[in-house]
Write a structure and sequence with these properties.
mainly alpha; 60% helix
Amino acid sequence: MTKVQLSLTDQEAAILGSYGSQFGYNLPKTIRFVISKASEDFLREGTIPIHKMSKKTEEKGLEAIREYRSGKTTEVKNAQEFFNQL
């Protein structure tokens, strides 16, 4: 379980509180309800947010793959030992 601390303006709290009162919910339960409904929509639609990486990051990633495939990389089994040798 993940805990989240959330700051709302008085207006946001009033709007959510008013919405939740229709169902007999307090503010925290209303917020959980809204988040669960949004999560259900994502799951039902199979929608997973996709975030595009920057061109620079993509180029570095592709270069790293080329170096890996050409054998220019080193396998590290013990990170502490590896960094001590640098």
